[in-house]
Design goal:
The protein is an alpha/beta fold. The chain has a single domain, classed as Rossmann fold, CATH 3.40.50.150. The protein is built from six helices and nine strands. The longest helix has 14 residues. The model has no long low-confidence stretch (mean pLDDT about 95). S-adenosylmethionine binds next to helix 1.
Length: about 200
């Protein structure tokens, strides 16, 4: 099954609260967005947004320049429906983050639990090329993945676990790590998963 069909099938079969990555509020992500320094015009791109409530947190902070990208049109549609009129200012991109898609440059690139699915070096390089193309000078990249002591599989797919160091060498020399947090995510089935959140600042 290709990745698009895989993810669409998951979102078709499972409710929002029945996926292991569900969190009622994207607390760590929102704290990192706040720490990066925001103004009402700050633009945020969430790659692999799924049905995450991260967007709800951004809207509650008064941000309106929000783009949600996902390989699953099903996930985006469900988020669009859930948000209703509150989502009218959101831009939606149905695409593979490693593929051909365009977006305006952004102040903040956010990814929770997507980069770790890229087990192929060429896919990771394409992802980081897009990130380097789109994050504005002095902008921010927040990348949350399974930590080195986290799960090796998610959603039936193998993952590659990361530390701030491995992410730092993938993101390249234009970015500096400014914050890192370990986080224990508790799934709806009460399993604890070890995540790491890394926040990078673009130097130039
Ligand atoms: C584990 S879920 C995380 C969803 C969301 N970020 C969250 O924290 O709730 C992974 C998401 O990434 C999407 N995804 C997986 N591979 C992708 C890719 N190559 N490009 C874009 N989205 C992808 C999936 O459809 C799914 O919504």
């Amino acid at each position: 099954m290709n990745p698009q069909d895989h993810w669409n099938a998951i979102y078709r079969l499972k409710g929002e609260r029945h996926v292991s990555w569900f969190e009622p509020a994207a607390t760590v992500s929102i704290e990192m967005v706040e720490a990066s320094g925001i103004v009402p015009e700050t633009s945020v791109l969430d790659v692999g947004a799924g049905e995450s409530r991260f967007v709800d947190g951004l809207l509650a902070m008064g941000l309106r320049r929000i783009t949600l990208l996902d390989i699953s049109a099903e996930a985006l549609e469900r988020t669009r429906t859930r948000l209703g009129p509150a989502g009218r200012t959101v831009t939606w991109i149905d695409a593979d983050v490693t593929g051909d898609w365009t977006a305006d440059p952004v102040d903040i690139w956010h990814d929770r639990a997507v980069f770790h699915f890229l087990t192929d070096a060429a896919d990771r390089a394409r992802y980081m090329r897009r990130l380097n193309e789109l994050v504005k000078p002095h902008g921010t990249a927040i990348i949350a993945t399974f930590a080195p002591d986290g799960p090796e599989i998610c959603s039936g797919l193998p993952v590659m676990r990361h530390s701030p160091d491995t992410l730092g060498s993938e993101i390249g020399p234009d970015f500096a790590l400014v914050d890192n947090r370990k986080h224990s995510h508790v799934t709806p089935n009460h399993v604890t998963q070890s995540f790491q959140y890394s926040r990078f600042r673009r130097l130039r």
